[in-house]
Amino acid sequence: MTSMKEQNEILYYRLIQDHLKEMFPIIYTPTEGEAIQNYSRLFRRPEGCFLNVFDQDRIEDNIAQWGEPDDIDLVVVSDGEQILGIGDQGVGGILISVAKLVIYTLCSGIHPTRTLPVILDCGTDNHELLNDELYLGLRQPRVRGEKYDNFVNTFVQSVRKSYPKAYIHFEDFGLHNARRILDKYQPEIACFNDDVQGTGCVTLAAIMAASHVSKVKLQDMRFVLFGSGTAGTGIADQIKDAIAHESGKSKDEAGQQSSALLSRHGYTSLGNTHLCVDKPGLLLKSKKDQLTPAQLPYARNDQEWEGKDHNDLLSVVREVKPRVLIGTSTKPKTFTKEVVQEMAKHVDRPIIFPLSNPTRLHEADPRDINEWSEGRALIATGSPFPPVEHDGVQYEVAECNNSVTFPGIGLGAVLSRTRLLPPSMLVAAIKALAAQAPALKDPNAGLLPDVTDVREISVQIAKAVIQQAVKEGLNQEKDIPDDDADLEEWIREQMWDAQYRPLKKVERDSASAHAKGEAGSAASHRSAKA
Ligand SMILES: NC(=O)c1ccc[n+]([C@@H]2O[C@H](COP(=O)([O-])OP(=O)(O)OC[C@H]3O[C@@H](n4cnc5c(N)ncnc54)[C@H](O)[C@@H]3O)[C@@H](O)[C@H]2O)c1
Ligand SMILES: O=C(O)C[C@H](O)C(=O)O
Ligand SMILES: [Mn+2]
């Protein structure tokens, strides 16, 4: 497929678009994980922009060579430290930047030549790669601290300088950098962290659909989040904000009342509603020193848990009786039969989302969850799965992957040329997505729309994002239609579609200011047409 992409981009995109469901798992999760792990051995030609932490003086020039200031709309960047659930993959991480951009083009019509995949090579702590003489990246341990921060900052400032209107998407950074980098740049530029925000948005939308099916309000649900890293705390934050919004509670109150994060350092439970668990079990205040800043708001008072077992998932589930269990732990098979049956004892529609990718790392197989809960569980998974069946009733397993949200959010950000992407724009996106859930009409249909419908979903998400940008005065694009239908039309006509164009049209296009002049495709974004 990669070879076809190089030889005939239109054919590549058309083939995938016409067979989206079949091709998605090949160009994206789970196959992409294998391609990334074998990157240096499968390597034929470089794709994307490689930046080296020891060559910081050249970053600005390297970035600038990809086009004129108006040529790039979207940059996806990774430092390769926490790829999917497979950890540090060094420069192989370039393929996650490439894959996410392919998804943008397929799912929201972002023009393929107006994007830039980037890998920040800071070394790797993966011993297998360090000992592999074919490894293509820097063969030395990861550079951290000030030098790393300067590297990221030089990259961000160079993008700002060369492509002032470009939107930056951060992907698969390590636990200690992902949130920190987002917090630093979110108030300054239009940027997005997919693992924190994309995952939080799509998961909340799925929970909202499950809330509709089970007829229980978000504020009345108890949550256990198993694995409280980048994705787990991103999800917890979205749930907390939504509960605060729905119930009128303060965000702190909502955090404590509605979430428990289970972490490496102990399980943490939120009062009776919301608990986070990580490796050491429930997140507890006494273990503050071991918690990340993102986990801290979810740490529970130790007194609440005195005399209660909180060091394993089953004990926490027994104690909390959650309605919702979400896995972002990278630990396969941890949602055991006992855990699922314990949940199913207390609620009629347990909501269970094993989200760890790739597929082999899922916390449980949806077929098992369905069987163990006697067909009552509402299930969504991080990678695609076929429908499951119990007693002759078929249930669609929704794919709860950030790929359902980030393309639409990015399209909205790019077309509105938003200056920033504040949380209110994400809320708009979540609502637009939740409104499209098939489960609203049929309880056995998916909690999220199918990937086949994703282009239309992206239009709806982009519309909501653009309208919110306008409401907040963040749009630098001033020519945005007010009317709903006109706005949808305006979005659709700017979405790139893989089609061979008649020769005349190609000539016209290459004579336009579209700097890349790629053969056979029409420039479809506004700035490209101008
Ligand atoms: N479905 C999606 O859209 C989506 C999006 C983002 C991430 N993910 C998946 O979520 C997983 C985590 O990604 P991340 O970026 O948050 O990684 P991360 O390293 O930031 O977080 C993983 C967390 O799990 C904890 N953990 C590890 N072992 C544990 C155990 N035995 N019990 C409890 N907690 C444990 C770690 O301490 C860490 O806090 C990956 O598999 C990734 O593919 C899925
Ligand atoms: O890339 C994916 O499949 C989703 C997500 O961003 C992840 O890191 O697992
Ligand atoms: Mn990711």
UniProtKB/TrEMBL annotation:
GO terms for biological process: malate metabolic process. (S)-malate binds at residues 357, 401. Keywords: Metal-binding, NAD, Oxidoreductase. The keyword Transit peptide does not apply. The keyword Hydrolase does not apply. Its cofactor is Mg(2+); Mn(2+). Residues 506-530 are annotated as: Disordered. SUPFAM superfamilies: Aminoacid dehydrogenase-like, N-terminal domain (SSF53223), NAD(P)-binding Rossmann-fold domains (SSF51735). GO terms for cellular component: cytosol; mitochondrion. It comes from the Eukaryota. The active site is at 28 (proton donor), 100 (proton acceptor). InterPro entries: Aminoacid_DH-like_N_sf (IPR046346), Malic_enzyme_CS (IPR015884), Malic_N_dom (IPR012301), Malic_N_dom_sf (IPR037062), Malic_NAD-bd (IPR012302), Malic_OxRdtase (IPR001891), NAD(P)-bd_dom_sf (IPR036291). PANTHER family: MALIC ENZYME-RELATED, NAD-DEPENDENT MALIC ENZYME, MITOCHONDRIAL. Belongs to the malic enzymes family. NCBIfam families: PRK13529.1. This is Malic enzyme. It comes from Cryomyces minteri.
